[in-house]
Amino acid sequence: MIELKIETVEVATVVELTGDVDASTASEVKDKILPLFEAESKMLLDMTNVPYMSSAGLRMLLMLYRQASIQQVKLVLVGLSEEIADIMEVTGFLNLFTTSATIETGLTALY
Questions:
Q1: What is the pLDDT of residue 111?
Q2: CA-to-CA distance for 72 and 64, rounded, in angstroms?
Q3: If exposure means fewest CB atoms within 10 Å of the residue's CB, which of 9, 18, 31, 110 is most exposed?
Q4: Contact at 8 Å (CB) between 60 and 29?
């Protein structure tokens, strides 16, 4: 099970994920986040409370990245665990995203 908490902080939409992103939750996450994309908007995806991400989660991130690129949405991933960051680095996904350790530094990265 995964929980999403959506709020606006300054000029950015912050989506806080809590739980594993895997085959059973990745499509739900994608379906809730994609409608939030607006042309040239700013979004932080707070993954501080995501302990595990499967290949389905990586595919979901790739879909978000592609859609963000099309709509010119600035997307920053916040609080990646060392394990998830390592997997993303090995697969080349880390190069696609701007990442940040905290919401505060993530907001700075949006500008």
A1: 84
A2: 12
A3: 31
A4: yes
